[in-house]
Fold DNA binding HTH domain-containing protein.
Amino acid sequence: MTAQPRQLASKGKQAEREAIENVIQRFGSSVEGKKQAATELGISIATLYRKIKLYGL
């Protein structure tokens, strides 16, 4: 199950963490993979990095 773009903000914290984990696994942890993950989640790359730090991913 993947998050639809622009829907990440409406998810609960646990679901948000899981969605981020899933897209990082799918696209990889490289900078390019994180850019693709952020696009998939409908958030900026800066927001993705902030959430990675917040959730300890």
Remarks:
- The chain has one domain: 12-55.
- The mean pLDDT is 88.
- The first helix runs from residue 13 to 27.
- The radius of gyration is 10 Å.
